[in-house]
Amino acid sequence: MAVTQSASAHWEGSLIEGKGNVNLDTSKSGSFDIDWKARAEEAGAKTSPEELIAAAHSSCYSMALSHGLTGAGTPPTSIDTNAKVTFVAGQGITAIHLTVRANVPGLTQEAFVEAAEGAKKNCPVSKALAAVDNITLDAALV
């Protein structure tokens, strides 16, 4: 069964001086202000496409890892994933670094890293971001 999700953006003005917002249309769970400064200067008051990509990647990755671990007979108690997306003006997204910490009873660190790498390779958002040459992973059990 295919599921289609929707978000929309509104922009006013030039790239540098302009501003806008993005809405999560399907879930109706929020509207976020966006501007160039959030992309280029790491301004904290507004979001950026890269922050939204980080949110999508960290959540998709956590779900994929949970699914893989459960399918292997070692369901996780908890998974915490952070995604850092690096944007360079004129180049685009140059790197993504995933950090995952999980509580998985009965699993060795080695087996966890193997499962974590598999989730990195196979989660749908990772696949969608395959054009990013530098996606790294730091995986550890807690």
Automatic annotation (TrEMBL):
Gene3D superfamilies associated with the record: 3.30.300.20
Xref: InterPro entries: KH_dom-like_a/b, OsmC/Ohr_fam, OsmC/Ohrsf, OsmC_Ohr_Peroxiredoxin, Peroxiredoxin_OsmC
Recorded superkingdom: Bacteria
Pfam families: OsmC
Protein name as catalogued: Osmotically inducible protein OsmC
Organism of origin: Lentzea atacamensis
